[in-house]
Q: What sequence folds into this?
């Protein structure tokens, strides 16, 4: 029974980590109507920036973490300036394809810059897990979960209550209409990508803290996709709930169903959930009901 | 586009594929050169041509699905994988001839593609891209986790050589003729499909699905058909691939390969069969150049390490996709057509 509860708690915390990465998708979508397939690559880039500032430059964590976040924001801004500003008002297909192109372009660039070798990642959060009676909770995931919830509440308030947040929401509705209302579409998209890159870097810190940094880490970008869809692509607060549900289901499948069938169903269960959501309710739990079903 | 004043006077003339005498001459010359290729160039180039022919079949299928019917498909490599596995299992376990396994591989892939095409009847845009992405992951999972006596798991499957009347297709030249024949049939079929009733329905649905529905086209069936046909082509290509490499493993059919196929049709031009072929030629040539030049660069610039081929391929292809989307979303064929029509009607503007 204790193990069962422990599995649920760990699953929920991993789900919150997915939710944090998914927040990168949602923020970019909420402020620019671009669905970013290259989110996992942004996580990798964030990871490499953190690795570079701490391990290579030898800065202390108090200095390197803010510096990494600034650098990540700069990368997000550059990507937006080079690739996405030109596509304002173009079709969905162009936008999707550019981010798909970015997916392999960014991976290639990072490979060329850093090579494929496995690197130790700095220990950002304490390695010692938290003991609650017989239960064992990883510290990095616990702190990450708290960060996710704080970020979700903060960003949710920003996008739904403040004036500048609502402006960006208008951009997500329609580029041309927003521009004709005097809203800077360029500014909104730039802000979204800076924020998306920063959130990905925080996700990388939580995910990789004390582990090793390789290219496999970019898989978390695809693991976060089902969470973003389940919540509905426009809802930031909904991510927390969706993340917890998917994380718990995945954890229970991995721990109880996989030994029975002798495979790794746990790793594919989020995608099965994603397919089901797409078929039954493409808007997710809290998304805007604007999907055309023709 | 023809100059003003020149127009077909019968339906047959309007549907003609070869419109001028020059086109007929060029087509005949091209076919003759292709047939004579093994006598003109070395074995290394024949191997590259084999890759191009197989990619051409798959890219043409993607062109019908994405370019003509407008359904974004990021799972073409998974559909190809279904075909490759079907052909290799049939060939190695039942010993069927390749004359049967290749079409059966196509049908298996078409069934798989149709299942995901059904989702296209309900959702569109990048939501659809997500479902095809899920197809990619589910294929990967299924192969790795089904009992290894079925699909070989992570060890892959070894494929016997294609054989007919005691003639085994083992050398690259023999495989070249087999691939050329299949590719020619499939490409001719594609030209037939796109100027039939189905092809016109695809184009109508791509341009505006609401308007297409009002005109009496069954939009849902058309979208599902597009996936069915696209996946059939991928399956046939996958079977050819299995017979050429003689080994099938799950790593040959990843998301990256799907993106490579998308890059081919974007470079060549969306909505043009010839464009798909041009795209295949361009991308495969780039790939070949990088594979040849890459190791030399890696030797001279030591810090880059051994992954330069894969990395360089990613950088260039990703850059090419983004550049084409930003600068010329309609691809090379669009530019060529503009050039051609302005040459024809010169010195008049239209």
A:
């Amino acid at each position: 029974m204790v193990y069962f509860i422990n599995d649920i708690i760990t699953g929920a915390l991993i789900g919150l980590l997915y939710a944090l990465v998914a927040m990168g998708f949602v923020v970019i979508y909420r402020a620019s109507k671009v669905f970013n397939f290259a989110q996992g690559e942004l996580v990798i880039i964030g990871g490499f920036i953190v690795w570079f500032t701490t391990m290579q430059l030898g800065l202390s964590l108090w200095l390197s973490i803010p510096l990494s976040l600034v650098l990540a924001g700069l990368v997000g801004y550059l990507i937006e300036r080079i690739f996405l500003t030109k596509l304002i008002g173009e079709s969905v297909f162009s936008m999707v394809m550019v981010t798909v192109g970015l997916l392999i372009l960014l991976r290639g660039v990072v490979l060329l810059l850093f090579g494929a070798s496995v690197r130790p990642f700095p220990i950002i959060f304490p390695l010692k897990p938290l003991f609650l009676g017989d239960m064992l909770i990883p510290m990095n995931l616990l702190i990450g979960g708290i960060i996710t919830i704080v970020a979700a509440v903060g960003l949710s308030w920003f996008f739904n209550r403040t004036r500048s947040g609502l402006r960006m929401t208008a951009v997500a509705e329609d580029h041309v209409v927003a521009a004709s209302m005097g809203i800077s579409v360029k500014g909104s998209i730039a802000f979204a990508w800076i924020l998306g890159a920063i959130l990905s870097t925080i996700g990388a810190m939580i995910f990789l803290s004390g582990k090793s940094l390789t290219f496999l880490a970019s898989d978390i970008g695809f693991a976060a996709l089902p969470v973003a869809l389940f919540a509905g692509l426009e809802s930031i607060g909904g991510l927390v709930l969706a993340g917890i549900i998917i994380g718990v289901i995945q954890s229970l499948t991995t721990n109880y169903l996989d030994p029975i069938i002798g495979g790794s169903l746990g790793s594919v269960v989020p995608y099965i959930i994603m397919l089901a959501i797409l078929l039954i309710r493409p808007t997710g739990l809290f998304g805007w009901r604007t999907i055309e079903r023709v | 586009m023809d100059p003003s004043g020149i127009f077909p006077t019968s339906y047959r003339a309007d549907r003609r594929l070869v419109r001028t005498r020059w086109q007929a001459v060029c087509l005949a010359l091209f076919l003759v050169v292709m047939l004579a290729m093994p006598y003109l160039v070395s074995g290394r180039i024949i191997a590259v041509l084999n890759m191009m022919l197989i990619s051409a079949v798959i890219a043409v299928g993607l062109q019908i699905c994405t370019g003509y019917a407008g359904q974004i498909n990021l799972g073409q490599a998974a559909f190809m994988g279904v075909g490759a596995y079907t052909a290799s299992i049939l060939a190695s376990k039942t010993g069927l001839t390749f004359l049967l396994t290749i079409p059966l591989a196509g049908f298996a892939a078409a069934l798989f593609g149709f299942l995901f095409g059904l989702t296209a009847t309900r959702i569109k845009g990048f939501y659809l891209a997500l479902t095809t992405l899920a197809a990619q992951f589910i294929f990967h999972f299924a192969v790795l986790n089904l009992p290894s006596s079925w699909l070989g798991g992570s060890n892959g499957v070894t494929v016997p050589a294609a054989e007919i009347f005691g003639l085994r297709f083992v050398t690259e030249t023999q495989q070249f003729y087999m691939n050329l024949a299949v590719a020619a049939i499939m490409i001719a079929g594609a030209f037939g499909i796109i100027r039939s009733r189905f092809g016109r329905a695809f184009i109508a649905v791509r341009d505006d699905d609401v308007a297409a529905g009002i005109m009496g086209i069954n939009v849902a069936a058309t979208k599902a058909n597009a996936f069915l046909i696209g996946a059939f082509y991928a399956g046939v290509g996958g079977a050819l691939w299995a017979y050429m490499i003689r080994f099938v493993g799950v790593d040959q059919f990843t998301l990256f390969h799907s993106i490579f196929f998308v890059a081919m049709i974007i470079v060549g031009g969306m909505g043009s069969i010839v464009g798909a072929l041009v795209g295949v030629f361009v991308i495969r040539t780039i790939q070949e150049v990088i594979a040849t030049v890459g190791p030399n660069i890696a030797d001279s610039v030591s810090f880059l390490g051994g992954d330069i081929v894969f990395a360089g391929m990613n950088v260039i292809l990703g850059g090419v996709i983004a550049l084409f989307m930003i600068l010329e979303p309609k691809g090379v064929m669009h530019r060529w057509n503009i050039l051609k029509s302005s040459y024809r009607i010169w010195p008049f503007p239209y």
About this structure: The mean pLDDT of chain A is 85.
